């Protein structure tokens, strides 16, 4: 693996880690209604799985394993976006703004993993 590829690998590992951390900070600010509690649990799980599966992809034992882990990362990013859209921000502009940024990041991660898949298959 070249130095540039290796650098991008760890940049994406860090980016997915930061995404999961930002999700957790966002969730702490939400009003804990029954819906938000349940949706937040799913959101936290999905956001953490994005990076965890990408790390596993980088340690894959085969190309097939790598592709499967990247597909799971893409799926978890998409799922994170879904749960983000469901949480109730009580129409508070600051929370809405943060949610929109996180939805954008989830979408970008989906696109990045999609590009990795297209280049690897």
Kindly describe this structure.
There is one protein chain. The chain is an all-alpha fold and 121 residues long. The chain has a domain at 48-121: Up-down Bundle (de novo design (two linked rop proteins)), CATH 1.20.1440. It is 86% helix and 0% strand.
Task: Give a quick precis of the structure.
The protein has 121 residues and is mainly alpha-helical. Helix content is 86%, strand content 0%. The chain starts with a helix and ends with a helix.
Characteristic key phrases:
121 residues; de novo design (two linked rop proteins); mainly alpha; 0% strand; single chain; elongated
**Rounded mean pLDDT score:** 93
Assign the structural class, choosing from mainly alpha, mainly beta, alpha/beta, alpha+beta, or little secondary structure: mainly alpha
- The tally of strands reads 0
CATH superfamily heading of the domain at 48-121: 23S rRNA-intervening sequence
Shape: elongated
How would you classify the quaternary structure?
Answer: single chain
Instruction: Identify the CATH class of the domain at 48-121.
Output: Mainly Alpha
Q: Biggest sheet: strands, sense, closure?
A: none
N-to-C series of helices and strands:
HHHH
Please report the distance between the alpha carbons of the first and last residues.
Answer: 17 Å
Q: Which architecture of the domain at 48-121 per CATH?
A: Up-down Bundle
* Tally of separate helices: 4
- What is the helix fraction of residues, given as a range? over 70%
Task: Note the beta-strand portion.
Answer: under 5%
Q: State the low-pLDDT regions, or none.
A: none
CATH topology of the domain at 48-121: de novo design (two linked rop proteins)
Radius of gyration: 15 Å
């Amino acid at each position: 693996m070249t130095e540039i590829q290796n650098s991008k690998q760890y940049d994406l590992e860090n980016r997915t880690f930061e995404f999961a951390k930002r999700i957790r900070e966002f969730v702490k600010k939400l009003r804990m209604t029954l819906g938000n509690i349940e949706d937040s649990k799913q959101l936290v799980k999905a956001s953490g799985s994005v990076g965890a599966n990408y790390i596993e992809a980088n340690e894959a034992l085969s190309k097939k394993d790598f592709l499967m882990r990247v597909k799971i990362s893409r799926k978890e990013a998409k799922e994170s976006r879904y749960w983000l859209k469901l949480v109730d921000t009580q129409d508070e502009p600051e929370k809405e703004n943060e949610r929109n940024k996180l939805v954008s990041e989830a979408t970008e991660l989906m696109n990045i993993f999609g590009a990795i898949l297209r280049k690897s298959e």
